[in-house]
Amino acid sequence: MATITADLHDPARYRVELRSGRHVWYADEPVDAGGDDTGPDPYALLLSAVASCTCITLTMYCRRKGWDLHSISARYTHDKVHARDCEDCGDDHTGVIDRIRSEIFIEGDFDDDQRARLSDIAQRCPVHRTIENGVAFTCETVFVG
């Protein structure tokens, strides 16, 4: 189970300190949105989760298969579009929707069947599936003081 704590220490700013175990990093808003740009914005952090999971999943798969993987890099983008303008979004969406697009660059010595399999695996990382399948949120708000 993954646990993250987030602390915003200065309510005059948007900088949030994030912790997971011994790791510490920051999220912020860009200057033009009123932040200090001391870290990625929340959407960039979301994209970093799915991009890193994709790279790790593909690497694990290649290792398990003994395939000749040289490198993987990924570029993910997020935007909001009108459902009617998104040909790849399906017919079950209306209004404005979030869209994530990816480009995954895999370098290695692969035959056509391996390439097809890696293209499939790229869309099967656990974080990608979580986002795609939706999440059940539970939220408890505790007021202190």
Global shape: globular
The CATH homologous superfamily name of the largest domain equals K homology (KH) domain
Main sheet properties: 3 strands, antiparallel
Q: Poorly predicted ranges (pLDDT <50, ≥5 residues)?
A: none
Number of helices: 3
Summing up helix and strand content along with how strands pair, one would put the structural category as alpha+beta
The CATH class designation of the largest domain is Alpha Beta
Helix-strand pattern, N to C? Answer: EEEHEEHH
Oligomer: single chain
* Average of per-residue pLDDT values: 93
As a whole number of angstroms, the C-alpha radius of gyration is 19 Å
Question: Main sheet: which strands, in order across?
Answer: 1-2-3
